[in-house]
């Protein structure tokens, strides 16, 4: 059997050539800046269209591919030249960012698979010829005959054979012989017949062998593009700036949450500690603190916490970076990439079935509390009364002092305890005791959502947004907290501006007050920070210098 061989380059300056390619040939066309930007933006939008498909089957991708073929916004990608050029531009844009590069390869693999399925036999033959792809086949009918009964039996159990009549006339021309290690996916799912380490590969399943072949090529080309990008950073810095901005688009949103995902895309590994102390509910604050302290979370906590920070707007890149920075305290980086990074990408809908998983709600966390050695789930549901006070003291920053003024807590006149140090007295109020009382309500009933709402009220100066509508999810807690903090900051700025105006007037100097729009712009909090007009490349203002001579 001849192995998958070396590439042979072809002239791509012509619009002719095979429909299928691994994009290993460098473009030789002269592009204006306008063409460069247009092609890159179009390819990026093409990727975005496929990334937005959730719970997708191959049929769903085929339907989207068919729509793209006639969509006017993708007309510039329909020639052989533009397809290669746009691929090359976006690959260059993604090369420096490992996660962007991985997503690029993943989406390009989808496009390659769809194109392969839509190609005729001649186009496939040209692809095999270009890349010297050849597989061994049976030369003698007599040698093949002894395997026919076994192939029929295997085919009948293969769900991909929708038309079982094909098995009544099995031909040696339809089967290729490959080493079983070439097609692990098919072996795992028993979609090939194995004999002595050799897999009998039906022509319908060739794509499963070609996909890793295509992926390997893309990874090699990404490495080349990364080196080229380093050179361009000194010779064409304006292009590099554009390329970097191109892949800075936010990961898709919260799916099911009522929060606008685009408004929350500022949560990062650098500011998450401040977010956590101010706006995380006790369940997520507990997991966050344990991640920081132990540099590890067990599976259930890792999933619940990971989906929550995704819902809060943390990008995939930032999420992986956060977990990597903690986990690599005790394990090598390559082990993290091998054992944990996949699960994070899976939660973002970029692996496996590509499901856009949403953050877990309170009912789920209450039903899945974990044991005493774990930190996932609702702590109010998991911990006993004796465990709750030290939990609130150690993990949630609540003062635990003998309550001297119980009436005061019902009036809502409670100081903001955000940032309160452990054990610090707060107006003599046993805030942890108040929360525990809400849980058991003197009857033994466990009102966990009321306890969490009271936790919110104590940490937000008596404000309780859950009196009319009960607290149902950690995301609702986070959203209400960010909105309240945003409103408080606006009020603070308005007071500051009013005081400055009054001070200026008293001195005879008129200070022009800011309008509401200016106030909003001056006090952007993470919740609203990304509601600004996104970066837009003004193509009309570009000159017609080409990329080579610019």
Automatic annotation (TrEMBL):
Pfam families: DNA_primase_lrg, DNA_primase_lrg_N. Its cofactor is [4Fe-4S] cluster. Residues 275-478 form the DNA primase large subunit C-terminal domain. GO terms for cellular component: alpha DNA polymerase:primase complex. The keyword Nucleus does not apply. GO terms for molecular function: 4 iron, 4 sulfur cluster binding; metal ion binding. InterPro entries: DNA_primase_C (IPR058560), DNA_primase_lsu_euk/arc (IPR007238). This is DNA primase large subunit. It comes from Streblomastix strix. The lineage of its organism: Eukaryota, Metamonada, Preaxostyla, Oxymonadida, Streblomastigidae.
């Amino acid at each position: 059997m001849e192995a998958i061989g070396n590439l042979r380059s072809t002239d791509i300056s012509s619009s002719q050539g095979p429909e299928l390619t691994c994009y290993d040939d460098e473009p030789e066309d002269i592009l204006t800046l306008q063409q460069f930007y247009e092609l890159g933006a179009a390819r990026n939008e093409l990727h975005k269209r496929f990334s937005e498909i959730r719970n997708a089957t191959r049929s769903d991708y085929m339907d989207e591919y068919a729509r793209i073929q006639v969509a006017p916004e993708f007309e510039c990608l329909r020639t052989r030249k533009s397809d290669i050029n746009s691929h090359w531009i976006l690959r260059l844009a993604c090369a420096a960012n490992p996660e962007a590069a991985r997503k690029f390869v993943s989406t390009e693999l989808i496009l390659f698979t769809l194109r392969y399925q839509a190609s005729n036999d001649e186009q496939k033959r040209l692809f095999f010829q270009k890349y010297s792809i050849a597989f061994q086949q049976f030369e003698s009918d007599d040698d093949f005959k002894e395997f026919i009964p076994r192939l029929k039996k295997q085919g009948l159990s293969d769900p991909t054979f929708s038309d079982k009549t094909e098995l009544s006339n099995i031909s040696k021309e339809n089967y290729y012989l490959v080493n079983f290690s070439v097609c692990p996916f098919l072996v795992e799912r028993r979609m090939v017949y194995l004999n002595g380490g050799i897999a009998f590969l039906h022509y319908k399943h060739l794509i499963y062998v070609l996909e890793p072949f295509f992926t390997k090529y893309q990874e090699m080309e990404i490495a080349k593009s990364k080196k080229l990008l380093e050179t361009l950073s000194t010779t064409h810095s304006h292009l590099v700036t554009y390329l970097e901005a191109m892949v800075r688009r936010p990961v898709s949103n919260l799916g099911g949450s009522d929060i606008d995902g685009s408004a929350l895309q500022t949560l990062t590994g650098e500011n998450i500690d401040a977010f956590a102390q101010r706006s995380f509910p006790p369940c997520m604050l507990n997991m966050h603190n344990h991640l920081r302290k132990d540099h590890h979370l067990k599976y259930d906590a890792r999933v619940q916490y990971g989906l929550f920070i995704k819902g809060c707007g943390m990008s995939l890149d930032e999420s992986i970076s956060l977990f990597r920075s903690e986990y690599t305290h005790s394990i090598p980086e390559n082990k993290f990439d091998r054992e944990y990074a996949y699960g994070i990408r899976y939660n973002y809908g970029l692996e496996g079935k590509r499901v856009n998983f949403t953050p877990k709600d309170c009912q789920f966390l209450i039903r899945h509390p974990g044991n005493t050695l774990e930190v996932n789930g609702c702590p109010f549901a998991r911990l006993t009364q004796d465990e709750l006070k030290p939990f609130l003291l150690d993990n949630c920053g609540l003062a635990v002092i003998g309550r001297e003024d119980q009436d005061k807590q019902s009036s809502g006149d409670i100081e903001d305890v955000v940032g309160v140090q452990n054990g610090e007295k707060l107006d003599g109020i046993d805030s942890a005791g108040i929360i525990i009382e809400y849980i058991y309500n003197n009857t033994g009933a466990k009102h966990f959502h009321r306890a969490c709402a009271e936790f919110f009220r104590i940490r937000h100066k008596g404000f309780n947004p859950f009196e009319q509508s009960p607290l149902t999810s950690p995301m609702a807690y986070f959203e209400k907290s960010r909105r309240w903090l945003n409103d408080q900051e606006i009020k603070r700025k308005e007071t500051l501006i009013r005081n400055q105006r009054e001070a200026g007037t008293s001195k005879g100097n008129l200070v022009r007050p800011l309008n509401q729009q200016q106030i909003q712009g001056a006090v952007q909090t993470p919740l609203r920070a990304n509601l600004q007009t996104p970066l837009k490349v003004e193509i009309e203002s570009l000159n017609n210098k080409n990329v080579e001579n610019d």
